[in-house]
Design brief:
32% of the residues lie in helices and 27% in strands. The protein is α+β, with helices and mostly antiparallel strands.
Length: 263
Amino acid sequence: MDIYKIDKYTKSLIKEAAHNIKASLTSELIIESKSEANDLVTNIDKETEQFFIKHIKADFPEHRIFGEEGFGDDIKDLAGYVWLLDPIDGTTNFIHQKQNFAISLGIYKDGIGILGYIYNVMEDTLLSGSLNGGAYLNDQRLPMLHPTTVQEAVIGINARWVVPNKSVHHEGMVNLLKTVRGTRSLGSAAIEISYVVTGRLDAYMSMRLSPWDVAGGMVLANEVGAVVTNLAFEHLDLLDADSFIVSKPGLHEQLLKEYIKLK
């Protein structure tokens, strides 16, 4: 199958979906909770996923879709072509701020990421990349990332992990925050991954993300030399939720060995 044609098709689909999302900003949202009170979904999340599914199934009927809102296929494996989609990553930002949210999409073939996309809807910036083909910000190819130290790093991290919690020993995280140059929390995993890919952050970590949150970003990260694993320094499980860290080379191992201790 012609990857160039799929890439061109996908970019067009993403841009049309983003146009629809922007047009919805003046209408009243229908907001619901999913797994817990702060896990939100809107009618626009659902409509956007359904938009992608309608077109993908019509044009690539043999492809399967693994989407956050559950309108796609029941995915038990990554055989063949699988599209991993988060129609709006950063739904809380979408609801409250009307910015800092993204369309996140990865296309995998037999478990290998071949195309990745993160589209920051309100900034109108598209990160795209292909396996061994590089990563691009709009049409400009991104350079490879250079190593950095913890002391010079700015990292993306949620503040909840530096207080007592069930996932990680917070003392190490407190020490990390005392050592790094700075921290940021943007409320969208896809955007924070994109910031690592473009060099605006040196690392980003989370205790639990779903496959559609990271699939597109992983393709992009690999193309600029970033390192991606879970917090146990293992390959990510793209069939279930997992912890996550992406960072510049060199920094990755130092963070996991010296500061991040899982419970």
